[in-house]
Design goal:
Heat Shock Protein 90; single chain; 5-stranded antiparallel beta sheet; globular; Rossmann fold; alpha/beta
Length: 325
C-alpha cells in the first residue's frame, strides 16, 4: 500500500462542514423510500435540494419531485466519467443554491461495470469529500449506494469514507468510519505490451510522437487526440519542472482506454490538486485542473519515499482497445 498525497488525517465524524452520509439500499423500492424521506427532511428544514445522479435515476425521481420546487437536478453524465470533476461541481452548485438557505445534496455515482481504476478513484473521491468541505458552511450530502451485486470489499471501502449512515429514516454515526490518512492500493503493472521512454526537457516532442502513434493506432478521434496531447504536454512539463528535471513515460491500452503514465521524483502534498477551479485572475498552478477537464480519468499517487506517478486515461471508441497495431 502507498500513502495518499495528503498531509493530515481527514476530519472526525462530528467536524464542522459537510454532513456526509452513505445510504446503502437494495433495489428501486428501497431507493425511493430512503431518498424521498431524505428530501422530505430537507424540505422540513426549508433547505434546497440538489440531486446529482445518473440520467435514469433523475428521470425516476422526477416522477415524484417537481424540479423548481426547491429541487434542482444535475445530470451526472454531463460531467463525464472523471470523478476528479465532481468536487468543483459540488462547490459551484452549493454556491448557486446556498443563498436560499441550507442545501441538502444527493450524489449518486454508477458503481457497476466500472474498471478497477475507476472504482478506485470513485472510492477516493468519496473519502476526499470529507477533506474538501471540512470547515466550510454546513451542508448535507446523501450518497445512495445499491449494494446488489457489489463486493463486500467495495462496500466496506465506502463505509469507511462516510462519517454518517442514513437508514432510510434517520441518521446514525458510522461504526466503521476511520478519520485517518487514505491508503491507496499500489498501481498494478500494465497487463499488455507498452512503450517506455525516459525524458528530459529535450524530449517533449518525442513524447508527443509516441502518444500520437498510440492514439492513431487505437482510432482515437482528432479532437480527443488533441486534448490528450495538451494533457501529456502539461503533465510532462510539470514533471520536468518539479520532479527533478526528468521522468519516465509509459503508454499502453487497458480496459478500453489509452493510458499514459508519468513517473518522477517530485512529491505532491496537496490532496486537492487539480480539483479546485482556478480563479479567473490566477497565474500558474492550473495545469492539473485542465488535465482533469481534458481526460476521462486522472490518477495521482505520491509518496515521499519514491516520488509521484500520474496516469491519464482516455476512453477509446467502441470496438477498439486492443494492443498497439
Amino acid at each position: 500500500m502507498s500513502a495518499a498525497p495528503v498531509p493530515s488525517e481527514q476530519p472526525a465524524a462530528d467536524a464542522a462542514g459537510l454532513r456526509h452520509m452513505l445510504y446503502p439500499y437494495a433495489g428501486t423500492e428501497e431507493y425511493l423510500d430512503g431518498v424521498l424521506a431524505y428530501v422530505d427532511e430537507a424540505r422540513a428544514a426549508d433547505a434546497s435540494v440538489v440531486i446529482c445522479a445518473p440520467e435514469d435515476r433523475c428521470d425516476l425521481l422526477r416522477g415524484y419531485l417537481r424540479e423548481g420546487d426547491s429541487v434542482a437536478f444535475m445530470d451526472l453524465t454531463a460531467l463525464g466519467t472523471n470523478p476528479g470533476r465532481l468536487i468543483p461541481a459540488w462547490r459551484e452548485w452549493i454556491d448557486q443554491h446556498s443563498d436560499a438557505g441550507a442545501v441538502h445534496g444527493i450524489g449518486e455515482s454508477v458503481w457497476s461495470g466500472r474498471s478497477a481504476a475507476r472504482l478506485s478513484e470513485l472510492q477516493y473521491h468519496e473519502w476526499l469529500l470529507n477533506v474538501a468541505f471540512a470547515g466550510t458552511p454546513a451542508w448535507s450530502l446523501l450518497c445512495p449506494y445499491d449494494t446488489v451485486g457489489q463486493s463486500e470489499a467495495a462496500t466496506e471501502a465506502l463505509v469507511r469514507s462516510h462519517p454518517l449512515v442514513w437508514d432510510g429514516a434517520a441518521i446514525t454515526v458510522a461504526e466503521h468510519y476511520t478519520p485517518r490518512p487514505y491508503a491507496f492500493a499500489q498501481f498494478a503493472e500494465p497487463r499488455g505490451p507498452y512503450d517506455e521512454k525516459q525524458y528530459t526537457i529535450h524530449d517533449l516532442t518525442t513524447l508527443r510522437e509516441i502518444v500520437t502513434d498510440w492514439a492513431l493506432s487505437q482510432h482515437l478521434s482528432a479532437d480527443r487526440t488533441r486534448d490528450l496531447m495538451l494533457a501529456v504536454t502539461e503533465v510532462a512539463s510539470n514533471s520536468i519542472r518539479h520532479g527533478g528535471g526528468k521522468g519516465t513515460l509509459r503508454v499502453w491500452v487497458e480496459d478500453g482506454a489509452l493510458v499514459c503514465e508519468f513517473r518522477d521524483a517530485g512529491v505532491i502534498k496537496d490532496p486537492m490538486v487539480g480539483r479546485v477551479r482556478p480563479a479567473s485572475n490566477q497565474i500558474g498552478g492550473c495545469g492539473l485542473w485542465f488535465v482533469h477537464q481534458l481526460c476521462d480519468l486522472v490518477e495521482i499517487r505520491s509518496e515521499l519515499t519514491w516520488g509521484t506517478c500520474i496516469r491519464l486515461h482516455m476512453d477509446l471508441p467502441d470496438g477498439h482497445g486492443g494492443e498497439k497495431a
